[in-house]
Design goal:
The chain is α+β, with helices and mostly antiparallel strands. It has one domain. Helix content is 40%, strand content 22%. The protein has a three-stranded antiparallel sheet with strand order 4-3-5. Helix 2 runs antiparallel to helix 3. The longest helix has 21 residues. It is elongated. The two termini are 32 Å apart.
């Protein structure tokens, strides 16, 4: 799926989860994700579970920013609602997605590993091979 297309679909489906810059919520606007399609899959699954949590507990999660940091997915968010258990579950769901990003290729979604040549990235062997800079890269344990 083309890069712009998955971003648009995810934004459209889960529009109410995002805190838009400058209150910008145009119907055709796309949230500014700063990572590849592989992590889009993780976000899609995470938001689906957060939607279910919202329906069951009333806890609303608002995503403020989604980016790559040190080769991992970094999600800035807030939660609102009465249920403390719901807040803790939302925190665990988001932490799980961030942890899975350390093992998921940010470009294609296949199993990958964190490696570094100049900067940290999480890539599968195939995507790493397509970018010669990552051959023989050091790995973070």
């Amino acid at each position: 799926m083309p890069e712009r297309r998955w971003r648009a679909l995810l934004t459209q489906r889960y529009r109410d989860f995002f805190d838009w810059p400058n209150g910008h919520r145009r119907a055709d606007a796309v949230f500014p994700f700063i990572h590849g399609h592989g992590w889009g899959i993780l976000l899609w699954r995470m938001l689906r579970v957060l939607r279910q949590l919202q329906q069951e507990t009333g806890v609303q999660t608002t995503i403020r920013d989604v980016q790559e940091k040190w080769g991992s997915l970094c999600i800035h968010y807030t939660t609102t609602g009465e249920s403390m258990a719901g807040h803790r579950l939302a925190e665990q769901i988001i932490a799980n997605a961030e942890q899975l990003s350390d093992m998921t290729c940010e470009l294609c979604g296949r199993p990958g590993h964190l490696s570094r040549v100049g900067w940290w990235r999480t890539l599968c062997p195939l995507c790493a091979a397509m970018d010669g800079r990552y051959r023989g890269a050091s790995q973070r344990d």
